[in-house]
Design brief:
mainly beta, 6-stranded antiparallel sheet, 295 residues, Immunoglobulin-like, 5-stranded mixed sheet, single chain
Length: 295
């Protein structure tokens, strides 16, 4: 009779002799006579389909498989399925139990972003779910990722609507905890472009920079989609013999001679000065714009 033994298989990454391995651990039933475990490793080959990569029978409550870049590559989602049976009676098996899928590679958190043209910085975390191996003794142990941005085919073609705080990040190894074995952060800001160009989508891509490790060489991490919500822009004007229209639409005239502060932001270093001189001659006292300075 098939029974469920609550083996609870789970996959964790581990460095074994400097090489990346995945370990499937499970809780053996107790108190029971000695049992054997059949462990089947598989990876997601297409949505909903799994491909078997390794199988072994072991008395141990764990099983290892190496990420060799051929059978098992970065970017794979990996599962282990465990069945228990008594020695000598392999036909008396427990129900096979699946681990959760383990994604091996680089992850962005959050996986997508929606931001507005408001100048705010949004933190994007880049993490590796597998340990960073050190190829040689003389090497500083890190994985450098080149970051880039790209516009995703908006109606108005142009440069991406987003700016990053850095063009590259270094992933430095640390003890694996949760789903992270190395992490770095970068901030994403929407470019305030003063254009009514609708909501636009861009993407942030990461590429391992000159990796020596074969495992990383053929790997392209998933992109992050960033949608930028268009915000209308305020306008103020000073024109001819200065007629002034403020941000909130008030209108008035200013005929004074001199240099004046036209506008100043209370939240950031931004201000505009205007210079007005006499342009009416003897007949009328009129001032005209003759200079502008903006910071």
């Amino acid at each position: 009779k098939l029974t469920s033994l609550a083996l609870q298989p789970a996959i964790t990454p581990e460095l074994v002799q400097g090489r990346v391995h995945l370990k499937c651990s499970y809780s053996p039933p107790s108190p029971e006579p000695p049992v054997q475990f059949r462990v089947l490793w598989s990876r997601l080959s297409s949505p909903g389909k799994r491909e078997q990569i390794h199988q072994e029978t072991t008395p141990q409550p764990f099983s290892y498989v190496e990420m060799d870049g051929a059978n098992l590559r970065l970017g794979d989602t990996v599962f282990c399925t465990v069945t228990a049976f008594r020695r000598g009676t392999p036909e008396q098996q427990s129900l096979p139990e699946d681990s959760k899928g383990f994604y091996a590679g680089i992850k962005f958190l959050p996986e997508s972003l929606e931001i507005a043209e408001d100048g705010k910085e949004h933190v994007l975390t880049v993490l590796s779910t597998v340990p960073i191996a050190c190829p040689g003794q003389d090497d500083s142990c890190k994985m450098t990722l080149q970051l880039s941005t790209e516009d995703l085919g908006s109606q108005v073609p142009g440069p991406p609507d987003i700016a990053l705080s850095a063009c590259q990040v270094d992933l430095l190894p640390e003890p694996c905890s949760g789903s992270s074995c190395a992490a770095a952060t970068v901030t994403v800001t929407a470019v305030t472009d003063f254009a009514q160009d609708g909501n636009r989508a861009s993407r942030v891509s990461a590429r391992p920079a000159a990796p020596r490790d074969l495992l990383w060489r053929a790997y392209t991490p998933r992109d992050v989609k960033v949608t930028v919500r268009d915000l209308p822009t305020g306008n103020c004007y000073s024109f001819t013999d200065p007629h002034i229209i403020t941000f909130d639409g008030r209108r008035y005239d200013s005929h004074k001679i001199g240099t004046f502060l036209l506008c100043r932001s209370e939240s950031r270093a931004f201000e505009v000065h205007i210079r007005q001189w006499d342009c009416g001659g003897h007949r009328s006292a009129t001032a005209c714009n003759c200079g502008v300075a903006a910071r």
